[in-house]
Amino acid sequence: MNWKEDVLLEIQKELDKNILADKAWGVKIILHHSTGHCAIRETVYYNKGFRFQCFMKWIWYFRYRAALFQVQNPKWCVELVTFDYEMKSTNMQIEKRRKDIIAARRRKLTIAKNRLADYAKQYKGLFPITDNPNYIKSMQIVQNYEALLKEAERDSFIPILVG
User: Fold this and answer.
1) Under DSSP, is residue 70 helix (H, G, I), strand (E, B) or coil?
2) Taking a C-beta distance cutoff of 8 angstroms, is the pair 56, 80 a contact?
3) DSSP string spanning 133-157?
4) Is the predicted pLDDT of residue 96 greater than 90, yes or no?
């Protein structure tokens, strides 16, 4: 090998590192069993979040687990599924969660306002609607949703990430 090939190999390694940096790998072992009319699918092992090197290091273990399930359940079909996915940074996850929360709270506010308008349209009482306990309760719900929406739209709002 000459120096040009060495440089090209180094460049290729760097490109591979950059390409693999945003990806994570996972594995799933699924048991399939058909009982006449319906098929039963059962996930018996699921793990994700591996970097490529770690995933390749442990792939033998996942294959071993699949074989072990096959020996334990000879009438069932065992499927070993490996997958990769794009990892998102924490900031991206927080921003997506924040947008989802804002959209959900807007939806809830719209539903509450529509219910309030329908209730006011259908009201046929002698006294003003503002004295009705159901209307007052609906107004409080609308005000609560408006306050929650304002809170979520603030720039300092940080949602809790689950899972």
Assistant:
1) helix
2) no
3) HHHHHHHHHHHHHHHHHHHHHSTT-
4) no
- Give the DSSP H/E element, type plus range, for residue 41: strand 38-50
In whole angstroms, what is the distance from residue 88 CA to residue 49 CA? 11
Structure tokens at 88: 């998102």
d(CA 111, CA 80): 44
pTM above 0.90, yes or no: no
- For residues 51 and 38, is the Cβ–Cβ distance under 8 A? no
Question: In which residue are the tokens 């096959």 written?
Answer: 70
Report the alpha-carbon angle 120-125-130, nearest 5: 55
The overall longest dimension of the chain from CA atoms, in Å, is 97
**Which H/E stretch holds residue 39?**
strand 38-50
Q: Which residues contact 109 (CB under 8 A, 6 or more apart)?
A: 142, 145, 146, 149
Integer Cα distance of 75 and 72 in angstroms? 9
Residue 15: the pLDDT is 47
Tell me if 50 sits within 8 A of 8, measured CB to CB.
no
101 vs 87 pLDDT, higher one:
101
pLDDT digits (tens, 9 = 90+) for 32-87: 887 666 778 888 899 888 888 888 888 999 999 999 999 998 888 999 999 988 87
